[in-house]
Amino acid sequence: PPYDLLAQQSLVVVMSPTGRELRRIALTAPGTALGYLRNLHVDANGNVWHLAFDPRGATLTRYR
What we know:
The chain has strands at residues 10-15, 21-27, 40-42, 48-54, 57-63. The chain is mainly β.
């Protein structure tokens, strides 16, 4: 307050070894309280795994 929340978004920023931003991945904003609990994982190959929850269930998405 006094500002309205217009949008909620989670971002993954992919950086080069020198610290330059390479790209951004926009993720689905958490729909439930469960969405804030360890919903991201980066594996040894650099894949980003995102676990999103909504009232209908869960979705696991891999970003390369």
